[in-house]
């Protein structure tokens, strides 16, 4: 291994937590500096070090020495000692004092400090206090050096050595000598394998009792990581003996030793055969967790007190009629049973269930793939468009009779009519409990509320006008491509700069515009300079004129009613406004290249004297996911000294998330400032009021996962849910309740769907750092929640220990509703609580038939059903439009195909941008694992560029534009485990970056980047609870250990519009036939029976 020895000249970066250091070192006998990187705790400027490692070349920073091991070497010369002492290494000694000390003691200076520090008082300016400081600092540095040398000499890497020293301090060497297996228990990230390697280096025998006991505990812990609450003793003995390579009696004896130390609990299994007593071995926390969940659930079910007693004598027909009147929801028999059971039974499980609707006037418009339709024309089974461009089926249509009309006006002039109970998904401020600050903090986020609720906010506080907004549509409104006689870009130029008389002329001084027009003209036409300066004529070639052919552009303008129109009479023909996505972008580029303007701040606008053209441009921007506001002013001009009024000028001010795409001319693109496009993804509500009119109302139910569709003027509006009906009844009877989910993303969606605050279970229980386990819950049996009902969504993700903590905080007599799909992946932690509760038969269970959100007739829904039944999915390219398989069993080829499908094939064939495609992998390692795919996809979708700053942290490169995922709940930043975002700013000087998550930029320092991972590809487990327009799933036999039925089922049901499997039919068959993951060792169901 290469070695390097020299003096540390300066330290560029040092992380106190893990010791990671970037430094410049002058090698012995050289006069130049080299960069050294690695974990070097306590290293100081001026220190002489001996390094072992390897030379590497960084793409940005060049040649570096990567440190694997290091040792401090005390300097031997007077000059070296002086620099060493004066570097700040020893508190109380600066450059001046160091010079005096070395002048006094010469090369014996370090010996004096180490053995007779009292002699330092002989130096001028060094008194008793400074001697004490020097002695203390020198002792601390010596202890660090000795511990690091000891640990590295026994096979501990510098990175692990730093963590061990941070945990135990000066006593680290003693801990490692006496009980190296303690490292696995005390330090997160150091497991039995690492601790065992250290122990073997220390000479501990393979069959030593402490080694066998640690190995058994490790095996039991690994089984818990796989989801098992206990392990049968025979199986545990065999697995432990095999791992440790010892005789089985030694492993059995170790279990007894662990039981005596109360590290494990051993119990007879409930299904013992009697021939040979079977015994279950639990880690102690899981034993008490299982006992606690069973006992507390049973106490809830058997409680005499009933905090929802009002529903036992409730007038259900009348109550459900009120729900239907208020929400427009006509519940099916199953949905009625779900609501009634949950409100009358103490513990209820609800699985499945679609969303349902709200009410607007029958003349209100809704957007379909072929254009606008009225609410009155909508029928069950029709297809509408969701704001992300996806198709969403109408599940139900419910006439509501004549009801008062409310008007909602938005900042850019759009107006929507609805009833007072109509639902809106709005961006507004919310109060959120922050454990670290011990108080509620006002933050902003998405909520679902009624029209009347928004009006009440405004009545209380007019400043809410500046804080409440609804989402805009995406730019992917999938109108069909049109066969247009005039290229859309040319039509845009004609509308902006054209004169429409007998011929077609345009006025421009921009050669780039003229050249682009020429490339778009058909072969028999050209654009040539006209008589007037900066004027060009679009016409047929002279030869064609001789044949008396009509100008096809003139014929098209005549058909559209534009020929002969003056500038103040122009408009955009409907066929062009309803054209395909790229055609509409081209049209808008032509209009804005002609009469568009980008001001000094980078803001965009368009000006015209035609009121209709301004409105048409506004609608065009709306259809492309932008915000456009029209203003007008009276123009004036002077004629023969007399000031006269001109025509009214209309200006359309535009905000769009990708402003550069709205212009074709490079000079205008370069002027656009993305920062000027503030809040481009939502439009503010400025007015909301009841009118004096009434109108027939219609409620529709759609199957979009966010319950959203597009109504008048491209406004995004909301659908309601079964759970909201239940909440209505709780509100009506003055029952208190809380909504919670195991993860932040699930809680966020639950809050948006119900319009009520929803929390993670950790936040609900008032999690705070500290305590024996690293955290505590303030809500427990001594301090329970003061509520009548607890509703938990995504309950299939509940593990045993978290469920136990939750049940501790539920007061006697309260009701518990668990909502989840047991066919998805079980929780990451030990246990399978939802399935066990259902299997026990102790709780009331209501199953709803419709559990998918995709359109009827979709191969996604059909194949998801087939997979769930243990049948092979079908892929028929000639019939399917949303489910495909690219066949290969070679992992490297599969990885290449994944990149090709995401980058090229899906965007080209389906019009789904690569940013909307999520790769879901069954595992993390291997050629088609998450890690390798992220590297490939980053290189393909976001390659290095001069305009994209980047920073390498550890082995990962963070680059502007990268797609990332938050890996843990961070309540201070209001981001949650599983949140997806994109890097929108990266500052190498400030050592920070910003990630756009849910429309807002969240700041991170580089030291916080361990919370983030790249998310071009994520694991199927991490995707649970999320949905994406399209998913690509690599599935090869390389993954055979991870191929299970519910993993494939979960991956497939994450997609709304498209599923692409990349792999082999054999791998798919392995997954479909493997239902083993559903079998977890747990006795909860038996304890509940």
Write a concise synopsis of the structure shown.
The chain has 1089 residues and is of the alpha+beta class.
Structure description:
It contains 35 helices and 50 strands. It is an alpha+beta fold. It has a six-stranded parallel β-sheet with strand order 33-32-36-37-9-38, with helices on both faces. Strands 11, 14, 15, 16, 19 and 28 form a six-stranded antiparallel β-sheet that branches. Helix 10 crosses helix 11 (248-260) and helix 12 (284-302) packs across helix 27 (800-808). The protein is globular, with a radius of gyration of 35 Å. The protein starts with a strand and ends with a helix. The model is unreliable at 272-276, 353-358 and 850-856 (pLDDT under 50).
List the helices and strands and how they pair.
Elements: E1 3-14, E2 20-27, E3 34-39, E4 48-58, E5 62-72, H1 78-89, H2 95-105, H3 109-115, H4 128-153, H5 158-168, H6 172-178, H7 182-186, H8 192-201, H9 209-225, E6 230-232, H10 233-244, H11 248-260, E7 264-268, E8 279-283, H12 284-302, H13 316-327, H14 333-344, E9 347-351, E10 355-356, E11 358-361, E12 365-368, E13 371-374, E14 383-385, E15 391-410, E16 415-418, E17 423-434, E18 439-450, H15 451-460, E19 469-471, H16 488-497, E20 498-500, E21 504-507, H17 511-520, E22 525-529, E23 535-540, H18 542-546, H19 552-560, H20 574-577, H21 581-595, E24 596-598, E25 604-608, H22 611-623, E26 627-639, E27 642-655, H23 666-671, E28 682-702, E29 708-711, E30 715-718, E31 720-721, H24 722-732, E32 737-741, H25 744-754, E33 758-760, H26 761-764, E34 767-769, E35 775-777, E36 789-792, H27 800-808, E37 815-819, H28 833-840, E38 844-847, H29 859-868, E39 883-887, H30 891-910, E40 917-921, H31 930-941, E41 950-953, E42 956-959, E43 963-966, E44 980-987, E45 992-997, E46 1000-1005, E47 1012-1014, E48 1017-1019, H32 1020-1023, ...
Parallel strand pairs: 3-5, 9-37, 9-38, 32-33, 32-36, 36-37, 39-50, 40-48, 40-49, 49-50
Antiparallel strand pairs: 1-2, 1-4, 2-3, 4-5, 6-8, 7-8, 10-31, 11-28, 12-13, 14-15, 15-16, 15-28, 17-18, 19-28, 20-21, 21-23, 22-23, 24-25, 25-27, 26-27, 29-30, 34-35, 41-42, 43-44, 43-47, 44-45, 45-46
